[in-house]
Amino acid sequence: MLTVAVILVGALCVLNLTLTVGVIRRLREHTELIQNAVRIGPPEQIMLPAGETVGPFSAVTEEGVEVSRDTLADETLVGVFSPTCSACAEQLPLFVDRARSFPGGRDNVLAVVVGSREEAAEQLARLAPVARVAVEDHGGPVAQALGVKGFPAFARLAADGKVLASGYQTSDLGVPVAG
Asked: What is the mean pLDDT of the chain?
């Protein structure tokens, strides 16, 4: 009886050791993946960088008003969002706050939601009071003109379409506040 117990405990120890070695091997793989992700980091430019000029575009807002590069105000705040993006959900309230205090008000703020209206309903409801909002499919004209490579993407544009600042966080913009 004692021999069986010793063999059973020995077998359990060997099984435990095997599982522990497997877990350690897996943790090393995860550590390597995380280090690679940190090295890669977010894209250097999520959209056109400062100094570049936005390509021509035309879109219709949810209110039926056409917006284009030619209809940009003196300075325009732009935000591009996706309803399936967790970083967009984090940045949306910050964008809404910035838009609320942006010089020129709602007419100088353009929000683009890339996806379906059904998916974007919550974002549309939050953006509509502070921005002109356009919904477009992936690879749509506004996102293409802005050179968007990921979400969220933000920019401040001059009236001539020149990018004054851009980034993947609203804090990258140095957005002026209405006085």
From this structure: 89
What's the token pair of residue 78?
């732009």
Cβ-in-10-Å burial (0-12, 13-18, 19+) of 87 comes to middle
Residue type, 118: E
Measured distance CA(161)–CA(98) in Å, rounded:
20
Residue 83 contacts residue 124 (beta carbons within 8 Å): no
Tell which phi-psi region holds residue 105, choosing left (phi > 0), alpha (psi between -120 and 50) or beta. Answer: left
Q: Which CATH number fits domain 58-172: 1.25.40.80, 3.40.50.2300, 3.20.20.70, 3.40.30.10?
A: 3.40.30.10
Query: For the segment 14-67, what is each residue's pLDDT rounded down to a tens digit?
Result: 999 999 998 998 888 888 777 766 555 555 788 999 999 999 999 999 999 999
Q: Hey, what are 179's tokens?
A: 């006085």
The DSSP output letter for 107 is G
Which tokens in the block code for residue 147?
């050179």
Q: In the predicted model, what is the mean pLDDT of residues 109-126?
A: 94
Instruction: Name the H helices within the chain.
Output: 2-40, 86-100, 121-127, 141-146
Place of tokens 């732009």: 78
